[in-house]
Design a protein that fits this description.
This protein is α/β, with parallel strands linked by helices. The protein has a domain at about 80-315: Type I PLP-dependent aspartate aminotransferase-like (Major domain) (Aspartate Aminotransferase, domain 2), CATH 3.40.640. The protein has helices at about 1-40, 80-95, 105, 110-125, 135-145, 160-170, 180-190, 215-225, 245-250, 280-290, 290-295, 300-315, 320-330, and strands spanning about 55-60, 65-70, 125-130, 150-155, 170-175, 195-200, 205, 210, 225-230, 260, 275. The protein has a seven-stranded mixed sheet with strand order 3-11-10-9-6-4-5, with helices on both faces. It starts with a helix and ends in a 23-residue tail after the last helix.
Length: about 350
């Protein structure tokens, strides 16, 4: 009896196995077509393997000798700064490798709260909340804040993370032409019927080097009762007199409601992102932002590195002045068009480079 059952089970499993294999073969075919289309479009992205620390001079697998690095977002050269590295080692020793938990269960350490307070102080805002990345910060903000009663108005060339974050929310969506204030005003007029109106823009558009006209945006927002959100990933740490970003650069710090930015570029270059703004907003994000609620806490070493990077910026504006001088020396038309990572490292100890 049992032998018959085994034989029947084996015969029944055979067609299922063949169907599964057929589905896998079909999947492989679909994927190969997609990959070939990417190659054909000339958009295939290859990864160079770096065998040294990040910096203006690096070693790359397959290349003899060192090469100059013109393409990192290591704007201030802090990713390999000895004090930043030491702070990460100290945090690793004191707080461990990680929390194995989300923040609200058992994943909040004093180092996280201290960093959030420091970020808020740096940006002159009420509060801040950490995320694993700024992509997560953008994914968490719009869905938690905006409802079907609200509207969001987005520059058409905003970063992919802003676009994806906006897609997740149920607010009415308006897209205005890049840096076109007349089009933004027309969209604001159209959006007057909604409860909240949020204008969303990058501060510095990394692909083209454009700086958002925040003075004009804030003026229109004030005129039409809107809030202003700025993604400062390619501005935090080096734009403005003290590196606070485009709102400082353009003198509208008190008119920008919400800032999202990253710890993974100028501020140590490891990972992590954040939202900073009004305290009630940050409190709401701690309750509703899904990337915050369902992601592990930022590793202590990353928090320690970022905290030290902020210390270096707040202690002196020498780092910001250094990148300004190097930008002028290279003769570029604006801050952001200086190729990312080109010799923009902060003053280092003798023999560091």
């Amino acid at each position: 009896m049992w032998a018959c059952r085994l034989l029947h089970a084996g015969l029944s499993a055979a067609p299922r196995g063949r169907r599964a294999q057929s589905a896998l073969t079909q999947l492989r075919g679909v994927l190969e077509e997609e990959l070939e289309a990417i190659r054909g479009a000339g958009t295939w992205k290859s990864e160079r393997v770096i065998t040294s620390r990040q910096g203006p001079r690096i070693h790359v697998e397959g290349v003899s000798g060192g090469i100059l690095n013109f393409c990192a977002n290591n704007y201030l050269g802090l990713s390999s700064h000895p004090e930043v590295i030491q702070a990460g080692l100290q945090a690793l020793e004191e707080f461990g490798a990680g929390l194995s938990s989300t923040r609200f269960i058992c994943g909040t350490q004093s180092i996280h709260k201290d960093l959030e307070a420091k970020i808020a102080r740096f940006h002159q805002r009420e509060d801040a909340i950490l995320y694993p990345s700024c992509f997560d910060a953008n994914a968490g903000l719009f869905e938690a804040l905006l409802t079907p009663q609200d509207a969001v108005l987005s520059d058409e060339l905003n970063h992919a993370s802003i676009i994806d974050g906006i897609r997740l929310c149920k607010a009415h969506k308006y897209r205005y032409r890049h840096l076109d204030m007349a089009d933004l005003e027309a969209k604001l007029q159209e959006a007057q019927k909604h409860r909240l109106r949020l204008v969303a823009t990058d501060g510095a558009f990394s692909m083209d080097g454009d700086i958002a006209p925040l003075q004009e945006i804030c003026h229109l927002a004030s005129r039409y009762g809107a809030l202003v959100f700025v993604d400062e990933c390619h501005a935090t740490g080096f734009l403005g007199a003290t590196g606070r970003g485009t709102d400082e650069l353009l003198g509208v710090t008190d008119q920008v409601t919400i800032i999202n930015s990253t710890l993974g570029k100028a501020l140590g270059g490891a990972s992590g992102g954040y939202t900073t703004g009004p305290e009630p907003l940050v409190s709401l994000l701690r309750q509703r932002a899904r990337p915050y609620l369902f992601s592990n806490s930022l590793p202590p070493a990353v928090a320690g590195c970022a905290s030290k990077a902020l210390d270096l910026l707040m202690e002196s504006n020498a780092i910001v002045q250094s990148i300004a001088a190097k930008t002028q020396r290279l003769g570029h038309r604006s801050w952001i068009t200086c190729p990312a990572g080109v010799g923009v490292n902060a003053p280092q100890p003798p023999g560091y480079l």
